[in-house]
Amino acid sequence: MGRRSIHTADELRALILEASTALISEQGLAGLSAREIARRIGYSPGTLYNVFDNLDELVLTIEGQMLDQLSAVLDTVASGRSHETFVLEFARAYVRFTREHPKLWNLLFEHHLPADRTVPVWYQQKLDGLMSRLADALQPAMSGASPDEIRRAASVLWAGVHGLTSLATADKLSAVTNESVGPLVDDLVGTYLSGVKSRYNARSTSS
Prior knowledge:
The chain has helices spanning 9-27, 34-41, 45-51, 55-78, 83-100, 102-110, 121-138, 147-169, 181-206. It is an all-alpha fold. Helix 2 crosses helix 3 (45-51) and helix 8 (147-169) runs antiparallel to helix 9.
């Protein structure tokens, strides 16, 4: 039985998010249920739906919090850095974050909305903001590239870094190499930056 509410709406929302985040950290997305969240906070399952429309909205909110946390980490590495150093530190921050929160970070890629629902504008803006920061850092190395090409390069690099970190967090990297994920990410970023510099700066020189 649920208990009579002794929390404000904001406090209840915070309790739900805290319990849900802990549950996902322990068991992954598969372990998330309204019943278990309610048990942990001492309310009835129906209380959850007084705060969030459904579990998808709850999960998206948790994902948004993680994106904000990553953005805050990037704030600490961006100031006074060259574009090359920032791109490298961006990737390293990504690796650290996935190591510290493997199940939570995998949530971004395991969670899928129903086919009839679209990603909220606020959520897409958070993703776009992170991608724009990486694209801005790549731009000086791609002086002959169009904005679309720079953004595509940022997407490719992010996907490559994510692939390595996904293998690492799933303990599958050893099937590919005995190297640890850190040096591999450094190699990936360094090689990719050298490649885009050569490709697009050569285009700029010849035009």
